[in-house]
Amino acid sequence: MSKTKVAVVGYGVIGQRLADGAALQDDMEVVGVVDVTPTLSIRAMLDGSSPYPIYVFKDSQADAFREEGIKVHGNLNDILAKADIVLDATPAGIGAKNKEIYKSKGKKAIFQGGEKNDVADVFFHGYANYEKGVSKDYLKLTSCNTTGFIRAVDCIDKAVGVDRVVITIIRRVADPGDTHRGIIDLAMVEKVPNHQVKDLMLIMPHIEATGALVHVPTTHGHIITIFLTPKKKLSVSDAVSLFEAHPRIKVVEIAKGFNSNSAMFRYARDKGNKRADMYEIALFKETVVTQRDDLFFTINVPQEAVVTPETIDAIRASLPLQTDQREALTLTNKYLGMGERF
Amino acid sequence: MSKTKVAVVGYGVIGQRLADGAALQDDMEVVGVVDVTPTLSIRAMLDGSSPYPIYVFKDSQADAFREEGIKVHGNLNDILAKADIVLDATPAGIGAKNKEIYKSKGKKAIFQGGEKNDVADVFFHGYANYEKGVSKDYLKLTSCNTTGFIRAVDCIDKAVGVDRVVITIIRRVADPGDTHRGIIDLAMVEKVPNHQVKDLMLIMPHIEATGALVHVPTTHGHIITIFLTPKKKLSVSDAVSLFEAHPRIKVVEIAKGFNSNSAMFRYARDKGNKRADMYEIALFKETVVTQRDDLFFTINVPQEAVVTPETIDAIRASLPLQTDQREALTLTNKYLGMGERF
Amino acid sequence: MSKTKVAVVGYGVIGQRLADGAALQDDMEVVGVVDVTPTLSIRAMLDGSSPYPIYVFKDSQADAFREEGIKVHGNLNDILAKADIVLDATPAGIGAKNKEIYKSKGKKAIFQGGEKNDVADVFFHGYANYEKGVSKDYLKLTSCNTTGFIRAVDCIDKAVGVDRVVITIIRRVADPGDTHRGIIDLAMVEKVPNHQVKDLMLIMPHIEATGALVHVPTTHGHIITIFLTPKKKLSVSDAVSLFEAHPRIKVVEIAKGFNSNSAMFRYARDKGNKRADMYEIALFKETVVTQRDDLFFTINVPQEAVVTPETIDAIRASLPLQTDQREALTLTNKYLGMGERF
Amino acid sequence: MSKTKVAVVGYGVIGQRLADGAALQDDMEVVGVVDVTPTLSIRAMLDGSSPYPIYVFKDSQADAFREEGIKVHGNLNDILAKADIVLDATPAGIGAKNKEIYKSKGKKAIFQGGEKNDVADVFFHGYANYEKGVSKDYLKLTSCNTTGFIRAVDCIDKAVGVDRVVITIIRRVADPGDTHRGIIDLAMVEKVPNHQVKDLMLIMPHIEATGALVHVPTTHGHIITIFLTPKKKLSVSDAVSLFEAHPRIKVVEIAKGFNSNSAMFRYARDKGNKRADMYEIALFKETVVTQRDDLFFTINVPQEAVVTPETIDAIRASLPLQTDQREALTLTNKYLGMGERF
């Protein structure tokens, strides 16, 4: 069977992880990555063990690479000619412009959460609405926070139905190494509701959602508290069992040292995960409680890698490689090391 | 009328603010402050405009002060002989030991939230249970977080009743200048429920409460989201009106720059408040929403000064200066500059 | 004697402090402050005890103030008509544009360090080159870091001459409350040499200077290490004595709790200084050492208020109010509470 | 040839890296690691690809491991019986107690920088004094900062001699994930001189050293500025060439994005290094300048992994595996991926 040829446009924080995620799929291969300048991430890739072929967006950008002794394999048109589908991980707003090019070349594309919704035919989440993405040309993923908490909400929703949620996002404001943004000694409050809970309602229109967003000066993953009214009352142990059965949720115990966003990051480092990345959200076991018929719990969303699985799902839906959600996600999970399960 | 004589034991972050708060009351005077070593705060007080007489705990501690040229007025026994009541703001656990001394001298005392509940006859909050503190010898204040969110919960409770709350505390982990504690680039999660919501249920036993606590690396005040089920449905504007009428709640607008814990701190600095302190909690107007019959909103609790008003209330209750809550709190508020109102 | 009439254009972090600094001078008065929108600082000023008259830059900006119930006294032309001199504390680059207006109205002006040097006739520091600023129409102050370390270098220079310096600046990257910039969990290195040491050489051309600049995620003042080759060898105690005699340098002891930028901030809060500001740089006594003939020491520069004294000096030089440096600075120091001394 | 059997006692931040470093040496094998409780790092090791056999310190500690389903291979005595040498990476002070046990069993041991100097026969640095460690039973490594800057100072010293240094350390105060220490929004100053420059003088007694230490709230590596008087004047390009030739120094360019401690960390993550670790210190090319006959430059020391190479060197010296420094270090460097060179 020939492999699906994936091009990654934009090799930043997200793009490099999408490339690695696609390369891990037995039924996919990465034909190359596109960037506009030889960034730190490009240099690191070249100094690492298995670099992808590098393409520039425009030919005029090739010189800066060549001056560094970096081989350039062509421009955007060249890579599009080789690809079945594009993962666009360019900065917010650029994807919409790129779409016109992809369209003119007849290529399908998956966009990230920074783009506006109208860039795509479907606003997509692998678990929550896979079927809507099947055979569609342009899918847009939910952003990292939303991708993360929808996993947990959908997990309960699939089991007993969810009526409403109230979510407080404690958001890391920059990625490790970022110098272009950040706040110091400050927790910044946003208007309620935020785009993340609105996005949840777009993906899961049967659920009422509201909540707060507070930006805090950390780099290692969002912490999110979720208050959720299930359609059928769940005990704490039932809820924990549901979460433990989910391949993209890792239930962890504060008592065992998993007490923070950064403990998860340290665990991933010490375990030897590439880039210290986690695909799973973490769910802190000791934070799961019920109040009357409602459920309350706290999760950690690793902002850099969390969207990779759902982006791979999107490739499967769009082409489509699988029309059946269970079949598709089981493959994604298997190849990303989260077990051959749904 | 003779003034009530107040002794402050422990001149740290809290103690110095309690002293200033008591000194601002027309019907109270600070007879002195007790500390064990010439700290930065002691030095700052002496370099400032109106220092309080300094006492040591034990005579042997006086030399360290005298070597710095600081006059010592006596020891704990000496100041107790002059005082009607003690505000104990010593580090957690010390207050319980000091209580035996206060008791042996027949002095009433007010303890802070770091002590265990059994140090006191009553666990006290000026607004939520003033009447329970009247004429009691030993009162313990709620801690800063609990003091802050009880104000908001009690505000709604007094108006329409409150059935239950779900609270997420985003907790600053150190005060400005602290070097003995802190976390960096990390948001640490605690077991649910935390002591703060348990404390709320001790003070307001008719309300069911749960919630999360996340420690974040900031120094300027806690941010807290509150989901609250009122006994009678409230519109957003009704809720905002109730909050605006409360003398110890300052309703602020994100759109006007009040967008964070630190914006409140900067406002207090620029306004010229001593130590850039705020007695009021801030309530972010654009975060007040309803979901069905429930209310959701976000507040900021300035951890250093927030307990001052309720501590002054406690003096009034304990002696008692006023047996009527409304009368007592109106005076506290007036002298602290929050308006002559309840 | 009639007072010198000072207008402050730009009421941000620096502008509000310059206004207060000028208002504290017995021989000056602040005729008003100019801003373009009702910021948090404007609101705080109005809620405080002694607000200055507010002017807008352009009439069209007045509505936003009036909607908040804030009285507007006129526009830039109106205030210039009343002023003898302007303190321009607008964002970097705006001052250069404003200069044309000041010039057209025949008004002298003092610019801050964010402007380019060519905005002014003289690049000015009260202690290092007062005489150059006398009677000049347009002076530009050194930036906060440079203002601070020049005080210390000049202090030694005046005593025994300074041959060269090597300076490492550990720079706070934002002011308390800033949300528009910041880095998190990162120490960012700049090319050597930085503009600050170049600026020192412009002000003190007889000294050779180089050094590093590292941005760190703090808000409360820069920490700077200085290696200095004096023309005549100094003992540690001689050097400390020189620093202690300087009215704008506060020699502090780590052993007494003055162990950081934030300890200085806390001291100023606890002392009751408005906005917790310090005009003095702090010099950490236990960091003063000699190596062979060289001197090494560490200072703290409070970035928000440190330029106020030298800006007041600049008013005195420009008009001139005093042609003699000693006479001028003695007055500035006296009115700012640093003692009637030079 | 049989491999040298290495036991690692203490599997924390340092211990796990030493174990991996030893395991990478073709002529060494790790017979096991000792810890007292199933920490996050132990769990991560077991969840990773190649766990080491786990031993407990005392038998009574085995239950806690077994309850988690973790196989325990024995106690300290058991592992010592199998080992040729011990790498002790226990918390500061514990190593001294452990030494008595190692001694009673006739085992050589290498201690880390947290122990007091008298724990060892020699205070050791692979490059600066390898010969002193040859055949000695107990070696103590320099701490992370000192290990890092001695590399750079020794590099110049070996080429032209070094007369003196003045060093400013901007120290990260916690490792990623640490919750037991940290400062927030604060840069804390230590007395001059600090232990690090004293340690340099112990290792390199022919060099005069002083300098400052400032703690800052970051987790990703120390930034250090070094002013150095060489015995023979060096041009910037000569100095850069010397640094570039050093296998444990990576010369990087700010202009290429290597602008901070965290940029180095991000580079290592993106490159795919295990735990995002770097063995090399980074030297920022654009910070290398001369002033008269002196050299000034800035380095980054990755605190977690930097001592690994010199610790491996210590094994080679102590046993000894190689009596010749060049031969020993060339092997260490080769096996750790820094090139087969000295």
How would you describe this protein?
The structure is a homotetramer of 342-residue chains. Chain A has 342 residues and is an alpha/beta fold. In chain A, strands 8, 9, 10, 11, 12, 13, 14 and 15 form an eight-stranded mixed beta sheet that branches. Chains in contact: A-B, A-C, A-D, B-C, B-D, C-D. Chains A and C meet through loops of A and loops of C.
- Low-confidence segments of chain A: none
Number of strands of chain A: 15
Using the alpha-carbon principal axes, give the shape of chain A: globular
Strand content of chain A: 15-25%
If you average the pLDDT of chain A, what whole number results? Answer: 97
Q: If helices are DSSP runs of H or I spanning 4 or more residues, what is the number of helices of chain A?
A: 12
Largest sheet features of chain A = 8 strands, mixed
What Rg of chain A, in angstroms, do the CA atoms define?
A: 20 Å
Helix content of chain A: 25-40%
Count interface residues per chain for the largest interface.
Answer: A-B, 47 and 46 residues
Q: How widely separated are the two ends of chain A?
A: 24 Å
Series of H and E elements of chain A: EHEHEHHEHEEHEHEEHEEHEHEEEHH
Oligomer: homotetramer
Tell me the structural class of chain A.
Answer: alpha/beta
What's the structural blueprint in terms of helices and strands?
The structure is a homotetramer of 342-residue chains.
Chain A (H helix, E strand, L loop, with lengths): L3 E6 L3 H11 L4 E8 L4 H8 L6 E3 L5 H6 L8 H7 L2 E4 L5 H11 L3 E4 L10 E3 L1 H8 L4 E4 L2 H17 L1 E11 L15 E2 L5 H9 L4 E9 L5 E9 L5 H10 L3 E4 L8 H11 L9 E4 L4 E3 L2 E8 L5 H12 L6 H11 L7
Parallel strand pairs in A: 1-2, 1-4, 2-3, 4-5, 5-7, 6-7, 8-10, 12-13
Antiparallel strand pairs in A: 8-11, 9-10, 11-15, 13-15, 14-15
